[in-house]
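The data layer described in this paper is built around a simple, fixed record for each protein. Because each token names a local backbone shape, the row as a whole describes the fold. We quote a single record here, exactly as it is kept in our systems:

***
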Amino acid sequence: MNPTVVLSYAIDLVAVLLLALGLKGLSKVRSARSANGLAALAMGLAVLGLLMQQQLSLEAWLWIAGGTAIGGLAGWLLAQRVPMTAMPETVALFNGCGGMASLLVAVAVALFQSTTGTLSDTAVLVERLSIVISVFVGAITFSGSIVAMGKLQGWISTPGWTQSPVRHGVNITLAVAALVGAVALPADPAGPVLWLLVAASTVLGIGVTLPIGGADMPVVISLLNSYSGVAAAAAGFVVGSQLLIVAGAMVGAAGLILTQVMCTAMNRSLVSVLFGGALGASAAGHVGGGGDEAGYTRITSCSAEECAMALETAERVVFVPGYGLAVAQAQHTLRELSKLLEANGAEVSYAIHPVAGRMPGHMNVLLAEADVPYEQLIEMDAINPEFPRTDVVIVLGANDVVNPDAKSDPTSPLFGMPVLEVDQARQVFVVKRSLGAGYAGIKNALFELPQTAMVFGDAKAVLAGLVSELRELGVGKKPAAV
């Protein structure tokens, strides 16, 4: 066997092992950064191993090196400059880039390197079916991810016609066109049906994603992540990369599992998310939701000073982070406040709802950036039984995920959705700019409960005020030496 081929297989084996180590390391916050580096190194080695088998010319190597340098620099600059509030949009963009990469690989092979032979040859049939899957899923992933990014960024709103039954007819027509291309492509991979499949799939991705409202974005992002994995696995079959097949399959499976978790957490089925209309569609494209502030009759508001006095004597405090915390970039101020409370002897934890923020894991990443101990981040099922013995809960920009109507009001659109049961705590402070509704567009019954007080203002400013008030009260100061 050619020594170059042997070396490329050895590189692939090392890459698979590094990828496995990287995935294992992602299970812990402390090792996630280095694990991400290992996984990136694994993919780089996989690319190198594949290129070594191609017998490329010097000119081709120069083109590849130039493209890699440009793309790497663009990625590095983006990673350095993107704010944490824009992380969901960035993830959507990365999903789209993955889909486009798989699409381009499949198109290139179809046009220039498709294996000759009849469809009775198993190798030929597998390659061409892989091209079909990679083109179809990759195109949908790319266009759908770009639309999702635009909606999250506020560049794209939800057109009124997309909420009518007309959209189903349009999408069915596009799906039929894509199916025609998919069926015809294996017989003639370089023919015009290839472009029919590309065009129909791309527009279908737009048609499916555009009607989906802001409240369903966590589900959409995780689903598109799964799509990018499926497209990558199919591209792995196209180019003969074992690592790409393995990595793509893992991403696809993990994305589907996460999508199911998101749907369960929102009490929504995947079918209703994709085809049943948009939950909170009126808020789609808005940064933090919206809604009418009227309708509340028993609201109690308080100042940061009153909230600080309650925190001073609290033995157990739970923070509930929401997207408002991310918008205000208040995670570091929150960490400063929690340190003061811990120095005062309070037990501090953070209640994390699966769909808090605008993408899966958004709050976890946000708080990890502020060096919040991972052990203090408690998932919904584990923290709910603890609320009855909690002295103070501070809700920071969260809305629908703490609405008790989800448990008690069968007429509520949220009924049946698992929520954080903060209404069971002794005292609740809700930090919000206003009484505006969340993405579901409905009132929050929590705001009118007798143990709830609203603290109106920007989350960072309110938290900074609490830190100042607690310091004036002497919280966190070491006792004088006797």
In short: Residues 1-81 form one domain.
